[in-house]
Amino acid sequence: MNIILLGPPGAGKGTQSARLVEQYGMRQLSTGDMLRAAVKAQTPVGIKAKAVMDAGELVSDEIVSDLIDVELATMEADTGAIFDGYPRTAAQAQILDGLLEKHGRSLDYVIELEVDEDALVERITGRFSCANCGTLYHDTANPPAKPGVCDVCGSTEFKRRPDDNEETVRTRMQEYRAKTAPILPGYEARGIVRRVDGMASIGEVAAAIDAILK
Ligand code: ADP
Ligand code: ADP
Ligand code: ZN
């Protein structure tokens, strides 16, 4: 099974991907996570991408597609892929078709998380993650059970993304509207788009996705 999770920043792609990985042993391919790792390691790609990411703009199609290509090459044929935050442009969607073919895969579903834009600013400005294991949290919607302690690994260190501020979020949403949303009709024509109400609770969204995948 190979799926794309599509939705604007804060829609819940990362949260749902983590759950699918846990539950079904699928692999999450998040270009955002790969880019942040490259920035942290100060690789040539990371150095190039940092300013673009801080501004909330899109990194080049070639850079992100190469990251996906490399990742797909390491995967066992029977491990399903969850594309999280990729493709984000028409060019990337086209490149992905070629990459899937190259790696002997085909796309089963494009799951669109439908969300209300006003709620996204609140989601993103409240987002933080465990500095040790990466588990995602939210200040009000999804805090750790014990304040200040990660549910999964017990760490007391947390971090926030530098681009999770209101101003950058607005730019990221514009990028989504202008460049990413237009890739949907092409997938729709193939009959593989499924819509999920991303404003429901995390558990309800998970159940809706399970109903599609079963
Ligand atoms: P979010 O989860 O909030 O949607 P991501 O973690 O997916 O954000 O992406 C963070 C940033 O990384 C983006 O704002 C963009 O600068 C860059 N990025 C991630 N994926 C892509 C992509 N497929 N194409 C271009 N830029 C990307
Ligand atoms: P994306 O990867 O699409 O940018 P995330 O999965 O990182 O989105 O979610 C953004 C923030 O919203 C996180 O802090 C997460 O805990 C929270 N969140 C995710 N799904 C929901 C939901 N269904 N309801 C409320 N908050 C959510
Ligand atoms: Zn943790």
Structure overview:
The chain has 214 residues and is an alpha/beta fold. 48% of the residues lie in helices and 15% in strands. The chain contains nine helices and eight strands. It has helices at residues 13-24, 31-40, 44-55, 61-73, 90-102, 117-125, 166-180, 184-189, 202-213; strands spanning 2-6, 27-30, 81-84, 109-114, 127-130, 136-138, 158-159, 193-197. The strands form two sheets. A five-stranded parallel sheet has the order 2-3-1-4-8, with helices on both faces. Strand 5 (127-130) and strand 6 form a beta hairpin. Helix 4 packs parallel to helix 5 and helix 6 (117-125) packs across helix 7.
In short:
The chain is α/β, with parallel strands linked by helices. The chain is built from nine helices and eight strands.
- Can you give the mean pLDDT? 97
What shape does the CA trace take? Answer: globular
User: How many β-strand runs?
Assistant: 8
Spatially, the strands of the biggest sheet line up as 2-3-1-4-8
Rg (C-alpha, Å): 17 Å
Give the amount of beta strand, in percent. 15-25%
What is the percent of helical residues?
40-55%
Largest sheet: 5 strands, parallel
What is the count of DSSP helices, taking H or I runs of 4+ residues? 9
Task: Give the N-to-C terminal Cα separation.
Answer: 10 Å
Which kinds of small molecule does this entry bind, naming each only once?
Answer: adenosine-5'-diphosphate, zinc ion
Low-pLDDT segments:
none
Structural category is alpha/beta
Order of helices and strands: EHEHHHEHEHEEEHHEH
